Structures are given as structure tokens and as C-alpha cells.
Amino acid sequence: MRVRIAIIDSGVHAAHPHVGGIAGGVGIDEAGREHDDYVDRLGHGTAVTAAIKEKAPDAELYAVRIFDRRLSTGIAALVHAIEWAACAGMHLANLSLGTARVEHEAVLREVVDRASAHGLILVSARDDEGVRWLPGSLPRVLPVQLDWSCPRDECRIVEVDGETVFRASGYPREIPGVPVDRNLNGVSFAVANVTGFVARARATYATLPGIIAALRT
Question: What is the reported pLDDT for 48?
Fold first, then answer.
């Protein structure tokens, strides 16, 4: 089965050699309105996509652009992006983003519950440097933590406060000629790396317990 992944971010530069094309996409403005421009002008979404592509080369990738000229947007755009991914039949949604604003928790909890009912698995950061992130810390979201000691070709599954948490490297795919410390890095890429591993397991296992069991081995 080909796994469909929505990459909710700054869009994708589909012609980038580390991406090699995508299956489609959509742009969503700050008010939650859709448009057909999902080209990446910031680079973040393309780097995230490249990390996922490296680990899940057979997946169908869809760009869902909610960031335009900066890596920030309104909550309406994020909510609509999650709804789009669920209604479009995506299996996974990569959210290398988050908000620490607790006033958004209720609306994010509602949209996560609706998306989960559609069978969508959302992958996002649980916390980072003591900050609790939404929606990654909510139930029904696959939670990710950054682990600088983890090699890029593996992820680790641990129990944190009774919750199953995925940990991965914060480094993206390497760019020839660019030193590692000069490239983008951080929890965004821990999320992307985990999404790639989960996508490979999702091609065989339809449920989250099955995916977790497969990745533990």
C-alpha cells in the first residue's frame, strides 16, 4: 500500500533533488481559505519533506502550505490544514510545528479528535526544552521528542509519564558541501524523521499499536 502523507508546513519545492516531485497539495491562508499555491519560499517545508522522502521513498507526499513569508500563521489555517488532510484521505500528517498558547488547546483538541476518527495519524512534537507544544502533547497525536544522540537512521520508543513517545535525531538530510551545523536542525526534523519511519510501518500495519510494535523490533 502507498502511504499518503500531508506535510503541513511552508509548502514544498517539488523540483528539489532531495524531493523529486510530489503528488499534489494545497495552500491555506491565515483565515483558513484554500488556494492552489503550495510552493515553498522559506525552505523549511522542503527540508522536512526531504527527510521524510529519504526514509519513506514510496510514500505519496502532499504539500499543505500554511506558512508564507514567515514560519507563523493563524490558528484557523492550522485547523483547516488538519481537516483538509483528514478529508483528503491522508494516512499521516507531518506537523513540524506547534503552538504553546493554551488558548488554542480546545479547538485543536476538537480537530485532532475529528481527524483521528477519519483514521489520520498526526505526528508532532510533544515538548522541547521544557515547553509543552500543541497539538503534539494532545491525546491521539503521535508525540515526538528530540534526541541528539539518536542516529538519523533509527528512532527510539520510550515511555514518558505512562505515554509512548517517539524520539529521533534533529538533523535533516545532509546537503553536500554544507556543514551539519550550518544546516537547518531541531525538533522539526525529529518529527519529520519519525514520520518517515512511521510511514514505512504504516504501509503494512493499519493501526497505531501495530505500527509501534513494528518499530520496536
Answer: 97
Across the range 159-169, mean pLDDT stands at 96
Reported pTM: 0.96
CA distance 184 to 191: 13
34-51 burial code (b ≥16 CB/10 A, e <16): eeeebbbebebbbbbbbb
DSSP one-letter code for 67: -
Rounded to the nearest angstrom, the gap between the alpha carbon of residue 81 and the centroid of all alpha carbons in its chain is: 12
Mean confidence (pLDDT) of the chain: 95
- The pLDDT, as a whole number, for residue 49 is 98
Domain that holds residue 74: 4-216
Q: What is the pLDDT of residue 176?
A: 75
CA distance 52 to 161: 28
Compute φ and ψ for 69, nearest 5 degrees: -95, -5
Provide the residue type at 52 as one letter: I
| Closest C-alpha among 111, 30, 35 to residue 71 | 30
Burial annotation 93-107 (CB, 10 A radius, 16+ → b, else e): bbbbbbbeeeebeee
Question: Residue 195 burial by CB count (10 A; 0-12/13-18/19+): exposed, middle or buried?
Answer: buried
Look at the chain and report how many structural domains it folds into.
1
Under 8 Å between Cβ of 131 and 149: no
> Rounded distance, CA 26 to CA 116, Å?
21
Find the CATH number of the domain harbouring 159: 3.40.50.200
